[in-house]
Amino acid sequence: MPLSVHLSPSSSPMFSAPPLWEFIKATGRLSVSICRWLNVSVEVHRWHYWILMLIVVGVGFYVLMVIWETMRRSPAITFRDYVEDDFYGIHWGWQWDYDGTLIRRSLRPYCPACKRDLSFTIFIDGSSIDMPCICGKVFSLPAVSLDRLNDWLTREIDVNIRTRKFVSIVEKQRAQISPPTGDKRASDMSM
Ligand SMILES: [Zn+2]
Questions:
Q1: In a domain, 54, yes or no
Q2: Domain assignment of residue 160, yes or no
Q3: If I label 34, which of 60, 75, 81, 159 is the partner at 20 to 30 A Cα–Cα?
Q4: CA of 165 relative to ligand 1 center, distance in Å
């Protein structure tokens, strides 16, 4: 059915309708014409219909897959997700302040083998810092002040952030389903 939009102005030359009202009326008439045109049945061949159906199903399936993939993907990893790592043969955990600075006093050593907190058994003597764990392993670091040790750890964390290495570290940590109980790194602890 051909589209026919009747846009003739009011018949009376004395009356001039405001342009906006004319525009609204014309839009209404056009909408009615479009609806009539859309409402007319069409006849297509079966192969034509089935090809269209296959395309619709294919596109729909693809869109669903894209939505599913987007929902499944974990949100982007930021430095705030980087809260643990292994340094000097010991597993360390820490927290970030609200302004993005590392809270130094939150740095805590953990046994890489059994994940127990080692901060209660830190022994500093003239030659080394020893951290024995209940599981039997003993971790040793060169004798420095705890403040200096925190400096070293902060520097290592900082370099992993600036080189973006932390992203792969966090991804690896997230991929681990269970904590590594027989971690090999635990055996070559002594420094
Ligand atoms: Zn342990």
A1: yes
A2: yes
A3: 60
A4: 26
